[in-house]
Amino acid sequence: MKTTRTARATRTRIAVSAAALAGGALMVTACGGSSDAASSQSPSSSQASSFDGAYISITDGARGGIAAVEGHKITYINVTAGDQQCQLTTKALDDFKHGSIVKDGTTDKGQYQVLSIGTINDSRTSVLWDDVNGSDQTGTDPGSGSISMSNSMITLGYTFAYSIDQVQLIPADSDQAKTLMAKDCDQHS
Q1: 74 Cβ partners below 8 Å, 6+ apart?
Q2: Which of 72, 101, 120, 145 is most buried as measured by Cβ atoms within 10 A of its Cβ?
Q3: Segments of 43-165 assigned E as strands
Q4: Residue 168 to residue 145: CA distance in whole angstroms
Q5: Whole-prediction pTM value?
Q6: For residue 107, what pLDDT band results from cuts at 50, 70 and 90?
Q7: CA 21 to CA 27: how far, in whole Å?
Q8: What is the per-residue pLDDT for 158?
Q9: Residue 46, Cα to own-chain centre: how many angstroms?
């Protein structure tokens, strides 16, 4: 009888120990998971966002606008170079792809122009721009602007010197963007 009680007690202790270990393992996994999730939401995260990439403007009056998104960072580029529109847009998109955007370029010298760089908030509804007027990228005139993001479009609220309230941008690798780029290139070739 004493052997039976000892065996039951031993089995009970083993079961309790196993449950405790399993619970501890779950807590470690859960903590690790929440840590990863938190870091992916942080503006300094190096993990790719589903919105990462380049977008080109389809809005009349703001054609030549490019937004480059990397996590919570957004760079707004202006390309208005007449005959060089195709070449400079292609260069800006290529520079973004290779991580070498020229931040002090001006369009009158044959360069695209970075109007402003901003930080997108966690809820992806607003951007804090370093230079809301896009005049010198110095960060001396920061301002907030609205943003709306979907898989097919980004819309920026009135932020820059445009008289346009909503600038709509589509992914640069979309069929519609490729058609617009081809049209720009054909017009100036």
Answers
A1: 67, 68, 117, 118, 119, 120, 127, 147
A2: 120
A3: 53-57, 65-70, 73-78, 113-120, 126-129, 143-149, 154-157
A4: 14
A5: 0.69
A6: low
A7: 10
A8: 67
A9: 11
